[in-house]
Amino acid sequence: METDVQSIIPLIAEAISSKDKSRLLHVLDELQPYDRAEIYKTLPGKFRLPFILLLPLPDVAIIVQELEHDYQEEIVSVLGMEKATRMMTYMENDDLADLLAGFSNDRTQGFLTSMTRADSESVQSLMQYEPDTAGGIMTNRYVWIKDHYDVREAVDKVKSFANYAENIYYLYVLDDNKQLVGVVSYRDLVLADERDQIADIMYRRVISVPIEMDQEEVARTMERYDFIALPVVDEHSRLAGIVTVDDILDVVIEEANEDIGKLSATGAGIDFQTSAVTASAKRLPWLMLLLFLGLLSGSIMAGFQHTLEQVVVLTFFMPMIAGMTGNTGTQSLAIVVRGLVMNDVDRRTLLRLITREFTVGLIIGTVCGLAVAAISYLWQGSGYLGLVVGLSLFLTLLIGTMTGTLIPLMLHRLRIDPAVASGPLITTINDLFSLSVYFGLATLFLNKLSQL
Question: Which domains does the chain have, with CATH numbers?
Answer without folding.
Answer: 5-128 (1.25.60.10), 144-254 (3.10.580.10), 276-449 (1.10.357.20)
